[in-house]
C-alpha cells in the first residue's frame, strides 16, 4: 500500500470503519486492472485530505468474509463508512477529480 493508505482486513475492519472521521474503503484485487488504476488517485486523495478522510484498501481475495458481508459484487468498489455505517458506495474506476467531486460532502 501507499504511505497515505492503510491496509484493511477481516480482523481490523470493524475497528477501522468505526471512526467518526469518514473512511473510504477500496475493495480491490491484485489481478484487477481497473483496481490498479485507482492506486494513484486514492493515494493522492488520502494525502490531500489527511485528517478529514482516511483511505483503506481491502484485498477481496484475501478477505472474502468482509467482501461478502458488504455484498461487494464488482471491483473496484469504494465504500465510505462513518461511525461504522455505510454512507456512500462507488463502483468502478475514477480519477482523483471525480472522486473529490463525488466525495465532497465528506471532504469539507
| pLDDT < 50 runs, ≥5 residues | none
Biggest beta sheet attributes: 5 strands, mixed
Average the pLDDT over all residues and give the rounded result. 95
Overall structural domain count = 1
Number of helices: 6
Q: Do you know the CATH topology?
A: Glutaredoxin
Tell me which oligomeric state these chains represent. Answer: single chain
Topology pattern, helix = H, strand = E:
EHEHHEHEEHH
Q: What would CATH call the class?
A: Alpha Beta
The helix content, as a percent range, equals 25-40%
Structural class: alpha/beta
The number of distinct β-strands equals 5
Radius of gyration over all CA atoms, rounded: 12 Å
Outline, from the CA principal axes?
globular
Assess the beta-strand content as a share of residues.
Answer: 25-35%
CATH architecture: 3-Layer(aba) Sandwich
Keywords, please?
single chain; 108 residues; alpha/beta; Glutaredoxin; 6 helices
Describe this entry's structure for a reader.
There is one protein chain. This protein has 108 residues and is an alpha/beta fold. The protein has a single domain, classed as Glutaredoxin (3-Layer(aba) Sandwich). 34% of the residues lie in helices and 26% in strands. The chain has helices at 13-17, 33-37, 39-48, 64-69, 96-102, 104-107; strands at 6-8, 23-28, 54-59, 77-82, 85-91. A 5-stranded mixed β-sheet has the order 1-3-2-4-5. A hairpin with a 2-residue loop joins strand 4 (77-82) and strand 5. Helix 3 packs across helix 5. The protein is globular. The protein starts with 5 loop residues before the first strand and ends with a helix.
Amino acid at each position: 500500500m501507499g504511505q497515505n493508505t492503510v491496509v484493511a482486513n477481516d480482523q481490523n475492519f470493524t475497528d477501522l470503519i468505526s471512526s467518526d472521521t469518514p473512511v473510504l474503503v477500496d475493495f480491490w484485487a491484485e489481478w484487477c486492472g481497473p483496481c490498479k488504476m485507482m492506486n494513484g488517485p486514492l493515494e493522492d486523495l488520502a494525502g490531500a485530505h489527511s485528517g478529514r478522510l482516511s483511505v483503506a484498501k481491502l484485498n477481496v481475495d484475501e478477505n472474502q468474509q468482509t467482501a461478502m458481508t458488504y455484498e461487494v459484487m464488482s471491483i473496484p468498489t469504494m465504500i465510505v463508512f462513518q461511525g461504522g455505517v455505510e454512507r456512500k458506495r462507488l463502483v468502478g474506476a475514477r480519477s482523483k477529480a471525480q472522486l473529490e467531486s463525488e466525495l465532497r460532502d465528506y471532504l469539507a
